[in-house]
Amino acid sequence: MILQRLRDATRPDHERLEDHIDLLGRPWSMPFYRSLLSKFYGLYASIEPPTFSHAEWEKMGIDTASRLKLPSLVRDLHFLGLSDADIAALPLFNEAPKADTFASALGCAYVMEGSTLGGQIISRHLKQELGLELGPDNGLSFFASYGSEVGPKWREFTGVLDFYQGSEAEQTELIESAVKAFQAFDRWLADIL
Question: How big, in percent rounded to 5, are the helix, strand and coil portions of the chain?
């Protein structure tokens, strides 16, 4: 089963990223939060469009529009005082893993979709630390992502992985893409964390 292989192969990089980020064990301020979301914007603007542009998503019953995080990041950055011009000027991550095949897109999506699970914990923490309220226009859209639908959305995504019938080479590409995505997140966020 590809999902278990994927979990096993990405575990070291996933754990390394979680250790480096440690978003629950650090002090928070609005300037830090703005900087962190700006970094996430630069990463997601580079990786999300190619990841969710493949026609295979629709064939597998996935509504990609409902999974895009860039609109949430923009809403949060607006809430934090950035203008559209400020957002457009944010640096982008030019070393994002390629998502030019559906297999590589699945690997990148595994990392982004999996991060929505931890985002629920982080959003509750930010509500407490920064006094932000949950809601689409209150500065927590990105981390709150799907809200109460996180579990069903994750199961829907892992169902796609269970159904995926890629060749051995494509499955290897999927796994390598997920590993590279975890490493990319770690590299891109390293200077702020």
Answer: 70, 0, 30
Quote the CA–CA distance of 113 and 120 in Å, as a whole number. 12
How many other CB atoms sit within 10 Å of the CB of residue 140?
26
CATH number at residue 99: 1.20.910.10
Whether pLDDT at 70 is above 90: yes
In this prediction, residue 69 has a pLDDT band, given cuts at 50, 70 and 90, of: very high
- From 124, 128, 127, 146, select the one nearest 136 (Cα to Cα): 146
pLDDT band of residue 20 (cuts 50, 70, 90) is confident
Report d(CA 79, CA 84) in Å as an integer: 11
Give the range of the structural domain holding residue 56, as residue numbers without chain letter.
2-189
CA atoms of 140 and 30, how far apart (whole Å)? 12
pLDDT, one tens digit per residue, over 140-152 is 999 999 999 999 9
Total tally of structural domains belonging to the chain: 1
CA angle 142-20-138, nearest 5°?
20
The model carries a pTM of 0.94
